[in-house]
Amino acid sequence: MSGAAPVAQLSDEQRLDWLQLIRSDNIGPRTFRSLVNRYGGASAALRALPDLIARHAAGRNVRLASRDACLREMEATARFGARFVALGEADYPPALREIDSPPPLLCVKGDVSALARPMVAMVGSRNASAAGLAFTERLTHELAGADFVIASGLARGVDQRAHRASLRTGTVAVLAGGLDRIYPPEHEDLARDICARGVVMSEMPLGWEPRGRDFPRRNRIVSGLALGTVVVEAARRSGSLITARFANEQGREVFAVPGSPLDPRAEGTNDLLRQGATLCTSAADVLDALRPVAAGTAPMRPSLREDEFWGDQPEPLWDEADILGEGGSAPLTSPSMHMNEDSVPAPTQGRALEAGAASVVALDDALERLVGPSPVTVDDLVRASGASAAAVQAALFEMEMRGLVVREGNLVARRV
User: Fold this and answer.
1) 250-262 pLDDT, tens per residue?
2) How far apart are CA 369 and CA 346, in angstroms?
């Protein structure tokens, strides 16, 4: 259905048909598309499904979703203040509509006008350095000032900083679970703030607790929403690299922020640069590439070379049965090496820092994580740690005496 002509606004009954079809076991986006294209609509596909299951899906655990359960989901979604937007409807994000196997239905909450504006995805390390967080904030402000909405995954670290920096100008957060299952849970307040001028969205039902395979699914939506994806910090085997891969496969520009070769958090981004990603040292690098695309005067294009960079063979994101018997429902894939990276909770230290509660952990441990080989200002460390300036200065003095950091004026870097 990607690239198909937009459909008219669905009626409530048609929307229920779409929901029942996509919620059926082993009916993913590709199978949904095949069924709707074959039978001319979701209602006709639902009527044909029992016979198709009997003829082609024996032993494949294909099961039609309960109509009553789907109706209850729609009612619960409305009570939650959210709604479903169907592929092809006016409020469906235009860039996402163009990817391979886009989500048939999106559950959205907030100001959906943000979905019509051009977007840039910002992703990176969950345990970002203070320098990485400061650059994320600066880049986000400049891109937002150029009327780009910022899309990300509501994760800790770079995602969180990008969302906060674009709250007043428009940001879109994509969840791996249901809209009422914010992950990480300390970002519940941030999700509420996003809805004021932006959108929180998911393709999963309310009540869905995110699992390992749901995070790559989320990542392909993050990249699909945007004209380009910026990776700020990413270690090798980082979950951010899957977003870069999806962006490239979707024909979108991939930007990488260079980092110190001594910092493991820069290994993934430096590898992306070697692979052909566009260098990003300022907002101008992004705007020069994406403004012509947003204006419709230049096509979207992939920027990475396809070779051995991605490592392991992909694994499926969905279990989709070929119930039409035509071999046309192969599952979408993602690199297996990233499959569970985002689902592992970050250390307690990281959660405390983002919540502004540095007293939960020893400040010197927090600063050891935040200070990398690239110089960062003391002011940035104060902001990232949530501690007082006096406490940070005292901790830095102790670290300098122990030979862990070097200082030059207001700049601090890890001793290497």
Assistant:
1) 999 999 999 998 8
2) 13
